[in-house]
Give the backbone structure.
Amino acid sequence: MLEQSRMSPSTNTIANGCLTVEINGLRNQKGIVCFSLFSGEQGFPNESDRAIASRFVEAKEASVSVIFDQLSPGEYAVAVIHDDNGDGKLNTGIFGIPKEGFGFSRNPKIGMSAPKFEETAVQVSGDGTKIQIDMNYLM
């Protein structure tokens, strides 16, 4: 499995937390699954360049997982896209409706807009936090 990552520099806080994220329900085994980890509402969920960490995994199975480690205790939210055509972005159709799969930590109900950080945040306080995200495909 190909996995690439991007982490921002750590702070002075002891960072020993670990978050395992498993994605379920990939529609096909094409392209890349892109994970973005946020530590606050700034940039969430659409500005992946403002994420504190990112992971990219080939979509070779119906379920894939990644680990974010060296996390300081606190609240984090994960946004995921299934970039099945590999163009590096979430493709949308008319009215901005996503053509590719997406998901969020805590699996919030999908409405007319993206969920807020508070709706998706999970507490990481040490080693071993695990979450599952179900993919959503609207088209």
Remarks:
- Residues 3-134 form a domain with the Immunoglobulin-like fold (CATH 2.60.40).
